């Protein structure tokens, strides 16, 4: 299975990554990635980017050294209402908006029902394209409810390769359940590196092993196709433009 787009990556600007955008682009090129989304953390993340950073992404060209670069963000879900940590005016101008739950950003988790409510409220937000690392065991959710909500709101769920490293230990079983539910309900997912270093762009070995175990095929993975990624991004941007 060939992954052509890495839609969740970070640069040194986010406060805890180690490569510049140009270095990340070089990593994408070396690792066979044709579309790179730069999605640094929202301002509520300790050390994260100021809102001005995201407004100013407009200065970036669409193509850098032959790689299509999507201008995005990994927003923080800051409360049970699914509130995001960047103004609507800034979110509307981005190519891709990821949303996820992170400790120390406003919402530190609750019961499974509370976490599910917070995630579904973010899913229902038309500004949101992708829910990242939904299998994080720090924020247990009702998988079937989340998958159904994503399907009903044209939102993608992510299988995050970095979740199977030190950052979110214990995610495998939750992510496998999510992948199997996505297959059952017919929901597309993305597979992402969540790279914080240029050499890791496009590296998704563990995530792809999980995808195979869940019997997901190429047609079930959005970022196996330039055309499908482009169509999804363009469709969601049109929705955001009307808000």
Description:
The protein is of the alpha/beta class. It has one domain (5-241): Alpha-Beta Barrel (TIM Barrel), CATH 3.20.20. Helix content is 33%, strand content 16%. It has 8 helices and 8 strands. The chain has helices spanning 21-30, 51-55, 88-91, 112-123, 143-152, 172-185, 205-213, 226-241, and strands at 5-9, 35-41, 63-64, 67-76, 96-100, 130-131, 156-160, 189-192. Strands 1, 2, 3, 4, 5, 6, 7 and 8 form an 8-stranded mixed beta sheet that branches. Helix 4 (112-123) packs parallel to helix 5 and helix 5 (143-152) packs across helix 6. The longest helix is centred in the C-terminal third of the chain and has 16 residues, at 226-241. The mean pLDDT is 96.
Topology at a glance:
Layout lengths: L4 E5 L11 H10 L4 E7 L9 H5 L7 E2 L2 E10 L11 H4 L4 E5 L11 H12 L6 E2 L11 H10 L3 E5 L11 H14 L3 E4 L12 H9 L12 H16 L2
Parallel strand pairs: 1-2, 2-4, 4-5, 5-6, 6-7, 7-8
Antiparallel strand pairs: 3-4
What labels describe this entry?
243 residues, eight-stranded mixed β-sheet, TIM Barrel, alpha/beta, single chain
CATH class: Alpha Beta
- What count of helical segments does DSSP give? 8
Total domain units? 1
CATH superfamily: Metal-dependent hydrolases
CATH names the topology as TIM Barrel
Please outline what is shown here.
By secondary structure, this protein is of the alpha/beta class. It has helices spanning 21-30, 51-55, 88-91, 112-123, 143-152, 172-185, 205-213, 226-241; strands at residues 5-9, 35-41, 63-64, 67-76, 96-100, 130-131, 156-160, 189-192.
